[in-house]
Each structure stands twice: as C-alpha cells, then as structure tokens.
Specification:
Radius of gyration: 16 Å
Number of strands: 8
Number of domains: 1
Structural class: alpha/beta
Strand content: 15-25%
Largest sheet: 8 strands, parallel, barrel
Distance between the termini: 6 Å
CATH topology: TIM Barrel
Shape: globular
CATH architecture: Alpha-Beta Barrel
Helix content: 25-40%
Length: 209
C-alpha cells in the first residue's frame, strides 16, 4: 500500500485553493507543482510568497520544474515546504543544491525524467531522502504513463533499498498496481484525482492499491 500525494498544478490562485480544499482532509501531504516556462514550456501560478500567505491546512512538498533550482530553494523553505524536490536535469551542481536544502532543515528529493539514466542519479542517492521518478515527460498533466519508469523504480531500490521512491505522471487506477508492485512507496497523481467526480474517493481508491 503506497502513500497518495495529490499533485496540484494550478494556473490561478482560485484553482489552487479549490484543489487544496478538495483533498486536504484525506491526505497527509500535497505536492505543489511549480513550472517556470523555461525548464518546461508551461508556467504555473504561484511562488513561495503567494503560498506563504495562504496558511495551508496540510503539509506540502514542492516539485520544482524550474531551471537553476538552487536560486529558489531558500524561498520555498521559508514558505514552509516540508520537502523540496528538484530535477537532476535542471541543476548546475546537484551536490550544492542538496547541501543547501539540507542546511535549511528540509527533506531533499530529486526528480528524474524518463530518459535520464539511473547512473546519473547514483552519486547522489545516499545524500537524499526521496526520489521522484517521472512517469511522463514533465510539463503537462494527463499524459500516458511510460512503462520504463517501472524499471527505474526497481533499479533505485536495488541501489538503495530503504530510500523512499515516488512516481509522478501517468499515475491512475490502471497504472498504479504495476507501479506499487515495482516497489514505489508514493503515488503522486493529478488527473486521476482532480478529474474524478469525487477527488476524496479517488484518493481512497488509490490508497487501497
């Protein structure tokens, strides 16, 4: 049984607040997706200043799909992020980003794109708390799940059995069983939750897989 974390990818403040309201009572954490229009073509609403002022009713992690994440981790730590996830492909020096997040007292996560070999992650895996395996190319919700993510989960667990592994992108009722069977600890989902008539029910279904 995996933990379910709703991924909130919003284009306006109102959409963000609505989605938090839909799910916060049945989860321990939400994920805020941040896109800068540079690392990925899309751009999302919000930043650390806007989120700081909302006084969220649940813990949150932030998934930084941004170039040069080292420039924003301090602000997100101040905004209250429990875990800060940056993309291996976006950082100039991953070790420095890890040290900066750790120095701020936050959990450290690294996200890896579908085409990124696990060998590029291996040097850092003992220094972090969490790996987020992308099941799709980051940038848009609702894409088809890429099954090579399953192999990545197994590879990561063979290198570091105790590290927590999540999967983000293409996670739904059909793909989740194979993801959990491969060893994932966390299911991060957006469309499967927020396009369901009852988001809380969708979370409960995924939680039982």
């Amino acid at each position: 049984m995996a933990q379910v974390i709703p991924a909130i990818l919003a284009s306006t403040k109102e959409e963000f607040v609505d989605r938090v309201t839909d799910v916060f009572s049945v989860v321990k954490m939400i994920q805020i997706d941040i896109m800068d229009g540079k690392f990925v073509p899309q751009k999302t609403w919000g930043g650390p200043d806007e989120v700081f002022g909302l006084e969220l009713p649940v813990k949150f992690e932030v998934h930084l799909m941004v170039k040069n994440p080292e420039n924003v981790v301090l602000d997100w730590a101040r905004a209250g992020a429990h875990r800060i996830i940056f993309h291996l492909e976006a950082a100039k020096e991953s070790g420095a980003v890890i040290e900066k997040i750790r120095g701020l007292g936050r959990e450290v996560g690294i996200a890896i794109n579908p085409e990124t070999p696990i060998a590029e992650l291996s040097p850092w895996i003992k220094m972090i708390d969490y790996v987020l395996v992308m099941g799709v190319t980051p940038g848009a919700s609702g894409q088809k799940f890429q099954s090579r993510a399953l192999t990545k989960i197994k590879e990561i667990k063979s290198i570091s059995p105790n590290i927590k592994v999540g999967v983000d992108g293409g996670v739904n009722f059909e793909t989740a069983p194979a993801i959990v069977a491969a060893g994932a600890d966390v299911l991060t989902a957006a469309s499967a939750i927020f396009e369901h008539p009852d988001p809380e029910e969708a979370i409960q279904i995924l939680s039982r897989i």
